[in-house]
């Protein structure tokens, strides 16, 4: 290797300039650390509400799906209730009630034969 032919002076002025340069670098490092800390804090403060917002959104979607499912179930139960109430109204008629009991439970009068045919049950 070649030696450098530049001679560096080491006097008081050079030492003071190095010292000032070192102080400025230290101050800049402290400022950068402080700004980095603030940046991390700001990011953290935005992440938590965003996480809560996403979680609330998912909960809302689940509740909406549950509402749709319950509405379908309600409609089905309302239709079943309508069918059952019409059957109750029809069963108030004695002739219909007799036919219904004979068909559903295979009751018969004496000397009578009952043949069960699927789908012929009165409604």
Automatic annotation (TrEMBL):
Keywords: Cell cycle, Cell division, Coiled coil, Membrane, Transmembrane, Transmembrane helix. The lineage of its organism: Bacteria, Bacillati, Bacillota, Bacilli, Lactobacillales. InterPro entries: DivIC, FtsL/DivIC. Residues 53-80 form a coiled coil. The keyword Cell cycle applies. One of its GO terms (biological process) is cell division. This is Cell division protein DivIC. The chain crosses the membrane at residues 34-54. It comes from the Bacteria.
């Amino acid at each position: 290797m070649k030696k450098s032919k530049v001679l560096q002076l080491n006097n008081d002025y050079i030492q003071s300039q190095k010292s000032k340069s070192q102080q400025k670098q230290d101050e800049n490092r402290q400022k950068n650390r402080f700004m980095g800390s603030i940046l991390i804090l700001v990011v953290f403060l935005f992440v938590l509400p965003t996480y809560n917002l996403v979680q609330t959104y998912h909960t809302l979607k689940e509740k909406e799906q549950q509402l749709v499912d319950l509405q379908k179930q309600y409609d089905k139960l309302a239709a079943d209730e309508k069918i059952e109430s019409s059957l109750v109204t029809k069963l108030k008629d004695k002739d219909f009630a007799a036919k219904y009991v004979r068909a559903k439970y295979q009751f018969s009068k004496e000397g009578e034969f009952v043949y069960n045919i699927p789908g012929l049950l009165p409604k």
